[in-house]
Design a protein that fits this description.
The chain is an alpha/beta fold. It has helices at 2-15, 58-64, 155-166; strands at residues 68-73, 79-80, 85-92, 103-105, 108-109, 113-118, 124-130, 133-140, 142-143, 147-150, 170-171, 178-179, 182-185, 190-192, 201-203, 208-211, 230-232, 241-243, 248-250. A four-stranded antiparallel sheet has the order 5-4-7-8, with no helix packed on it. A four-stranded parallel sheet has the order 10-13-16-19, covered by helices on one side. A three-stranded antiparallel sheet has the order 1-3-6, with no helix packed on it. β7 and β8 (133-140) form a beta hairpin. The longest helix is centred in the first third of the chain and has 14 residues, at 2-15.
Length: 254
């Protein structure tokens, strides 16, 4: 009996020093004079109707839902890389109530009506939103040349890299042979492809990804004394580049 009692006391003493916090119940020891170093449990979150978390006004929600919009482009179909286009947007606001929220186009706050001139280097979707809700969008499909060069680490250049890498080979009308994409990357580029970390980039058959200087004699960007460009992700990923057959990777870091 004395042995059982001693074991029980030892177990209680051990529990006092252990954080037993779980996701479903706060079991941490409470603060007291005999336990001044304990961690006090956090206050429970306020209920949904608490003043700090007011419920949305049903009338305002209904009013915002009446906002509509449209997007149109000056050209249709697939365009050559760098083709200048004009995109128009138009938002219709209800007249029987006052909607509250920001109008954004392509991530920028805008007026209810307007236009913008673009020359996309890769296929892109332009979205019109109100209060975070998508009203309309337009996609400009860009046909890439067979050789593209990545010169910077901007979102547009990342999108260009992905589209070129995933473009399957096509038949050259002059030779009748399959021709795949070639992607040349400048030496100083740090290409962050974190935006695609969830799905990765699936490099198509025959694609060549090469780190290379942009001027003659077009030296390799990577050597014994040059690190070369880098392709990387700051997000957890199951794989950055998914490689298909006959792919060439040279002159850069992963």
């Amino acid at each position: 009996m004395r042995s059982i009692l001693l074991t029980s006391l030892l177990l209680v003493a051990c529990v006092d020093d252990v954080d037993l916090d779980t996701s479903s119940q706060d079991l941490r020891p409470r603060c007291s004079v005999s336990n001044p170093d304990c961690e006090a449990p956090a206050d429970p979150p306020p209920p949904p109707d608490h003043p700090g978390h007011p419920l949305p006004d049903p009338g305002q929600v209904a009013c915002n839902a009446l906002v509509t919009g449209s997007v149109s482009t000056s050209m249709s179909g697939t365009v050559v890389q760098g083709t200048i286009q004009t995109i128009y947007w138009d938002v219709t606001l209800p007249t029987n109530c006052t909607p509250l929220g920001d109008i954004t186009f392509a991530g920028t706050r805008v007026a209810p009506n307007g236009w913008i001139v673009v020359a996309p280097i890769a296929t892109r979707v332009y979205s019109l939103n109100f209060d975070g809700r998508k009203l309309a969008s337009a996609t400009i499909n860009v046909e890439l040349p067979k050789v593209v060069r990545i010169t910077a680490s901007t979102p547009e250049q990342v999108a260009l890299f992905r589209q070129a890498a995933e473009t399957p080979p096509s038949v050259n009308p002059l030779t009748g042979q399959l021709q795949a994409q070639t992607i040349l990357i400048n030496p100083n580029v740090e290409l962050d492809i974190s935006a695609y970390s969830g799905i990765g980039i699936h490099v198509a058959e025959g694609v060549k990804i090469i780190g290379q200087y942009p001027t003659p004699p077009y030296w390799s960007a990577r050597s014994s004394n040059r690190l070369g460009p880098r392709i990387f992700s700051t997000a957890r990923s199951a794989g950055l580049l998914w490689i298909h057959k006959d792919v060439t990777l040279r002159g850069f870091r992963l």
